[in-house]
């Protein structure tokens, strides 16, 4: 998923207090001329779930029209019939996801129709998962940067096919950023602190400081993975929105189980069954992301036997590794107060260090007149973290203290920006477990941030570098602010209450404690369906036939500084690979 710090949207919540509000997915319309194959799930005509029929059978059923699912569907539809089932709506006419200046609003919105479904990990860190066509590319900060070459080699991808797949994405939706004055100050400060050389504008992952691509155009409009569907074959492609897949259907009569279709629910609550053709090459392909894919595999009976039986889920295949190996890149942030008016900018500049951390930045605050105002519940300024406490235990004193703490955040924080420090390739590992059988509910997710000392060591190095960046004369000259002490800079973050982790008195004196107490997400979580444990090297689910996974749940590490470029490329890459494996030279690509 792309990305800018969670603190930003938490701060912005101070400005949001609304009770009677319109739906948060926007108007239920889309560009029908360009996407005639997109329609509501209720339009699907299927046989009764209790009967068998070959009507509405597809060569490929893709569960999740996200960052990988959209390019995958567009590619496969060149030769085969493809059905995409997306649980959310379209991004095209939703102003909360179709303007750069509204970036934070969807992340802060926890209404049932939001394009972003929030969850809180058991670690106490706020997080989000996409619920909209285009997936994480529709709700992120837009930064586009390719994976480091070592990642491509490690996962065993064909370098030539990778180098064909990246440009296919880039030519359609990637842009060069306008490069704001704030981002120039970030660049100069990074170079001043030794993150060199300056590599200019490039998509490539290279050590030093660089300016990357963006999916936002010069007008601030995002171009998400959903737009890649336009390059599909509209005669063979069907995309259903508000289609929530309940489970994968298996034929268990033979020696090996095989996927034969899926059961999904439309926006009116009616269930439908979509089936695969009888061709042995047809597949259900999971592209629901690092949360949705392992969750749905377990709900469908593939996972740890004991866990499934506790919830009375019929076991199709016992695999203790489903949901294991969950990793989230920990991020910590630092406010950059400013006395100069600063325009909004998301991620444009990145410092790729040789010590295992990435330094990025964002600035300003914006909101378009067209944005949809939504009630934010747990994320609101009045309730916030207090909503995790039973209502009877919320004293007036505690509530007032919380509100005061929010109001005490310096107004400069809204006018200034943020420096973000992200740990690359964390060694701390967690897991995902079902808490019930409702696919709409979040599973319990644990990331175990900083449980491995190596991650904490790198966080400390990253924070020290971030402090140097903020204290650089290039930054202080630009913000027209005095050089702040380390303790004052850290204290701004501690006061913001960016997570549910208890704070300690020495937060601003011990950088180690600061890292632990103020950790947030950058939404680059991955894992849960690792290669060799849940899927094969070509991403087929081990132990069953006609079921594959194509998304970030297969990753052992997040590729490069920001994963969305590689996840989109993966969708295109795997589409081409499947076509070539199935058709050979007849694929024509």
Structure description:
This protein folds into 2 domains: 33-44 and 56-175 and 221-292 and 318-328 and 527-583, FAD/NAD(P)-binding domain, CATH 3.50.50.60; 178-211 and 330-423 and 450-518, 2-Layer Sandwich (Cholesterol Oxidase, domain 2), CATH 3.30.410.40. It has 15 helices and 27 strands. The radius of gyration is 23 Å and the shape is globular. By secondary structure, the chain is of the alpha/beta class. The chain is 25% helix and 19% strand. It has a 7-stranded mixed β-sheet with strand order 8-9-20-21-22-19-25, sandwiched between helices. Strands 1-11-4-3-15-27 form a 6-stranded parallel β-sheet, with helices on one face. Helix 11 (453-471) packs across helix 14. The two termini are 28 Å apart. Its cofactor is FAD. Disulfide bonds join 459-515. This is Protein HOTHEAD.
Give the helix/strand layout.
Elements: H1 6-12, E1 38-40, E2 57-58, E3 60-63, H2 69-76, E4 82-86, H3 103-108, E5 116-120, E6 126-130, E7 143-144, H4 149-155, H5 159-173, H6 181-192, E8 198-201, E9 208-211, E10 213-214, E11 237-241, E12 244-251, E13 257-265, E14 271-276, E15 283-286, H7 289-299, E16 302-303, H8 305-310, E17 317-318, E18 324-326, E19 330-336, E20 349-352, E21 357-363, H9 396-407, H10 412-415, E22 417-423, E23 430-433, E24 444-446, H11 453-471, H12 473-479, H13 486-494, H14 511-517, E25 520-521, E26 544-545, E27 547-549, H15 564-583
Parallel strand pairs: 1-11, 2-14, 3-4, 3-15, 4-11, 8-9, 13-26, 15-27, 16-17
Antiparallel strand pairs: 5-6, 7-10, 9-20, 12-13, 13-14, 18-23, 19-22, 19-25, 20-21, 21-22, 23-24
Pfam families: GMC_oxred_C, GMC_oxred_N
Keywords: Disulfide bond, FAD, Flavoprotein, Signal
Signal peptide: 1-26
